[in-house]
Specification:
alpha/beta; 9-stranded mixed β-sheet; 7-stranded mixed β-sheet; globular
Length: about 300
Amino acid sequence: MKSTNGGAKNHRLKTTVILWTIAAVVGIIAGLHFGGKHHLVPPQWAVITCDVGQGSAALLRTDDNSAVLIDTGDSPDALTDCLRYAGVERIDAVILTHNHSDHVGALSALPREPPLYTSKVFGTSSRAAIHLAAGDTLSWQGSACQLTTRILAPFGGQEPAANAQSDRLSSQPYRARREGRGDSASENNASLVSHTELMCAGSDPLTYLAPGDLEEEGVRRLLATSGDLSADVVAVPHHGSKGSGTALYRKVQPTVALISAGTHNDYGHPHREITDHLTAGGVALYNTAHDGHIALYRDTDQVRLHTSK
């Protein structure tokens, strides 16, 4: 008669090996998910500057899985990665600062068609857009954060009045030109500039200034026509180009400055004139090229950051 003891031991051994293998795989997956460049976003995040390479995109949180999007970058894959990082499944609205491809090129990647706001008809897409100008205000009420957005530019005469009948944009996007060529500077200076106050549950207000690609002339006009520009956080205009100058920061007095730029980009962004000025002024400076996605939130009287790299 054959003994069954050896078979039982082999069965237990196989079971143990399988369980340990499963545990190891789960551990590897968890390590990939929580470590490296795919950290989970802090649950209390308020603003995220997305790492979209040489472009610009930012999320302003409304609910646990929804946000307002300012610009889209030019890479659908990069934008999708940022939405996954943030856990955002629904976009309440899209604000396009201006129609250069590094700011609007990934618009078609959004699965739905949220309300679209812009300042200039360059021919972004076939979607309907509502045009905004200085003095207009937008607001969103979410369970996580309440957003109040003031439009500071462009100024009268450059844009149709807000709440006017929506126009439909053409299907051919404007391709961004290198700095200093053609009328790119005037288009940059027509950027829609927004100042947003985020009132998020359990924290003090956080203020965020998004100036698009304003250059020195646009900054000069903004400073001459706007009142209080102070903000906790500023998105550095034009990816840190020296062409935007430094006067804006003396007026805004930010705690944190965020640069959205691609690694080893052709333009040399950000320029040292800008980064040196900010760091010399004691402003905490972060760059998507080094830090990946950058999430911010307010913790009592301090602005906290979390990066994906």
